[in-house]
Specification:
26% of the residues lie in helices and 25% in strands. It is α+β, with helices and mostly antiparallel strands and 300 residues long.
């Protein structure tokens, strides 16, 4: 693969925002849904996604810039054997695996490093000739999935199209947060030791009608006609499930909160928060009508 910065078309000095803009532009142009008859575009989409997965991660980007990992995220062969093992610092896989290979941390026995990189000795010959590199899994593939606000609130299933053209129904987890990642085992690129995984980053799309309030509650505004606010009645209120009717008590004023039980965000335990609807009284432009309704309210 070419230099990752060249793949995204950004300079090495590009900041996180510039890298994200470049990725979004290219991903939109090259997405398989738009290029079903263009395999080159699909391959390019994979390269762009793989490049973004490394450059958008500060730790992986630092490793890449320092030459510690290659364009696939695999650790590069350390140099400098001339000083013997005494001049060599070993490494072992870190707890979090990066695309196509593990992240490494300093420390450990140098013999362990060779075993991890090349496998155990085959028993034939001596020295380094007795080691062979084990087969690798395919590379992980990163995706960013836009999730409608209501689907996230209700923990519904959403459709995801993979780079190979396959579509799956992805279950949104309860209590989901914006930027949360899901790992789909075996949905990455093919490899000698089996396929890699798909890493899906969820991007919850904002809804101008709602705002989150804590782990489960939602807030919204509802316009109530003056006549309904003065005399009482019912008013339709938007919820993630669709519009519902709420009772408006006579003499309701702007700013009053209506609490709709169980119409909020789905929590991690599966329960639903509440929807708090703030009343905004819609006063008509006709002053005589407003005065009449006000008098009716006073008489009541």
């Amino acid at each position: 693969m070419a230099d990752l910065y060249q793949v995204l078309g950004v300079p090495r000095t590009a900041d996180e925002a510039a890298i994200k803009r470049a990725y979004r532009k290219l991903a939109k142009e090259l997405h398989p849904d738009r290029n079903k008859d263009n395999p080159r575009a699909v391959d390019r989409f994979k390269q762009v996604t793989a490049a973004y997965d490394i450059l958008s991660d500060a730790g992986k980007r630092g490793q890449y810039d320092r030459g510690e990992i290659d364009e696939s995220g695999n650790p590069k062969m350390p140099g400098g054997f001339g000083g013997g093992f005494g001049g060599f610092r070993g490494a072992r896989p870190g707890a979090g695996a990066g695309r196509g290979g593990p992240e490494f941390e300093v420390g450990g026995d140098p013999a362990d490093l060779f075993e991890e990189l090349f496998g155990r000795a085959t028993g034939r010959g001596g020295g380094f000739g007795g080691f062979r590199q084990p087969p690798r899994r395919g590379a992980d593939v990163g995706y960013r999935l836009a999730v409608p606000f209501a689907d996230a609130a209700l923990a519904r299933k959403v459709r995801l199209t993979l780079a190979n053209g396959k579509t799956i129904d992805l279950q949104i987890p309860k209590g989901v947060e914006d930027g949360q990642q899901l790992r789909l085992a075996g949905q990455g690129e093919a490899g000698p030791a089996g396929p890699g995984d798909a890493i899906v980053t969820l991007s919850i799309q904002p809804d101008p009608r709602f705002a989150r309030d804590g782990a489960g509650d939602l807030r919204t505004d509802v316009m109530v006609p003056l006549a309904v606010a003065v005399l009482g009645g019912e008013q339709r209120v938007p919820t993630p499930d669709g519009e519902v009717k709420a009772k408006i008590a006579p003499g309701t004023t702007s700013g009053r909160l209506l609490r709709l039980k169980g119409k909020g965000w789905t929590r991690k335990d599966g329960s639903r928060g509440d929807l708090l609807a703030r009343v905004l009284v819609d006063v008509p432009a006709d002053p005589e009508l407003a005065a009449f309704l006000g008098a009716r309210a006073g008489a009541g």
